[in-house]
Amino acid sequence: MASLSYQTAGESHGPGLLALVSGLPAGVTVDMGVIDGELRRRQGGYGRGGRQRIETDAAQVLSGVRQGKTIGSPVALLVPNKDSRLDDAARTPPVHTPRPGHADMAGSIKYLTTDCRETLERASARETAARVAAGALARCLLRELGVEVFGFVRSVHRARSEVEVTEANWREMLALRDASATYCPDASATAKQEEAIHLAKVEKTTVGGLVEAHVFGLPPGVGSTMNWFEKLDARVALAVMGVQAIKGVEMGLGFGCAERFGHEVHDAIGFDPAHRAGRTLGFTRGSNNAGGTEGGMSNGAPLVVRAAMKPIATLLRGMPSVDLNTKQAAPSAYERSDVCAVSAASVVVESVVAFEVARALREKFGGDSLHEVRGQLEWFLGEARRLPHGG
Ligand code: EPS
Questions:
Q1: What is the pLDDT of residues 108-135, one digit of tens each?
Q2: Nearest CA to ligand 1 atom 17
Q3: Longest Cα separation, the chain
Q4: 8 Å CB contact between 146 and 277
Q5: Ligand 1 first shell, C-beta below 6 A
């Protein structure tokens, strides 16, 4: 059954986080270096708080893998928490003054309690460790199919990089990103971003920013225009908006489309027989304002996803709030947190995008084993190159 899905479980200070991934074909090499490498990257970035000095995230495979390869059964990944103290009332005391911008208030009312901890433990971005583990597993499949995902930080607060990421330069950009304290492939923007984070720390506040994920090597025709919920861009937007603290998602030119004329927006189509053997089948585009999808289907151009992360809601300086028990004004509670987690968010967004792309590829090409999926993909590309049939 070619339907890829995952769920996560776990609280920030529970025993651990779990990702349960179903629907991977058999025969995919599970590279623990990729999974643990992504988990480590999620923990990093300038501006992270004390929790990351406690944890050294690494995944344990509980099922679905034999001798380093998937066997088609569900894969359960466990990321244990070192700071596990959920049942220790003295070390996880109730929280009565909700943080504006956090899940605290809405969650407490929803569950008919005045203790925000009941909600915040699950709402915490610690859960994203499980999503990164699942995304890394999806990435293991994508690599086998010649599809790569690259994520980075575009901006922190007002410190924005104008760097252009393309299919030709992304590996170079990856090296620059990995040398950057904020995961931005631009040294001068990185310095300004570090400055913005430092200033926020001094001011006892927080900063957000923009992250991007680019997907290369996706063949045309992945995703479906036949039902709104099968559209690749819609699926990606859902997954990205579902990441903690994300308040905006756009593809390609995104919101910028609204202020341009049609001829300035749409990507002119050309054909270059020299590229016929590649994934684009020889079709070329003058630009990629569409961000790699048209009608909810991949069009052969790189998928370009951008997301806006709000500043983290936990402020050292506090925000005006109300004690849920007394209804009296009180500053919002402070829990150990980060000044900036935009770098971490870039890893999470990259991971959830990788998963959605892998899911859509599974739906298009089916198959129970990697061999079968690859065969189907190559068959499809061959048929598409031969169009019109008989021609
Ligand atoms: C996070 C772990 C959390 C927070 C942060 C992200 O750990 P703790 O609450 O023990 O410090 O540092 O979570 C939040 C920003 C939040 O609002 O919950 C992580 O591993 O990413």
A1: 999 999 999 999 999 999 999 999 999 9
A2: 124
A3: 78
A4: no
A5: 12, 49, 51, 83, 102, 124-126, 128, 312, 314, 335-338, 344
Contact of 154 with 184, CB cutoff 8 Å = yes
Helix (H) or strand (E) holding 80: strand 75-80
Q: Of 248, 212, 192, which Cα lies nearest the Cα of 345?
A: 212
**Ligand 1 pocket mutation pick from 51, 57, 116, 121 by most atoms within 8 angstroms of CB:** 51
pLDDT tens track for 284-322: 999 999 999 999 999 999 999 999 999 999 999 999 999
Class of domain 5-385 as given by CATH: alpha beta
Q: What's the rounded Cα separation, in Å, for the pair 269 and 103? A: 45
pLDDT tens across 156-187, in order?
A: 999 999 999 999 999 999 999 999 999 999 99
In DSSP terms, which residues pair with 329 in a beta bridge?
322
335 pLDDT above the threshold of 90: no
User: What is residue 293's three-state secondary structure?
Assistant: strand
Residue type, 259: E
Alpha helices for the chain (secondary structure H): 32-43, 51-54, 104-110, 117-123, 128-144, 170-178, 187-202, 232-241, 262-265, 342-365, 370-385
Closest to 8 in 3D by CA, of 71, 87, 78, 97? 78
pLDDT for 193 beyond 80: yes
Compute the distance from residue 125 Cα to the ligand 1 centre, in Å. Answer: 5
Residue 98 has pLDDT above 90, yes or no: yes
Q: What is the pLDDT of residue 390?
A: 63
| Type of residue at 321 | S
Averaged over 213-228, what is the pLDDT?
98
d(Cα 177, Cα 187) in Å, to the nearest integer?
A: 9
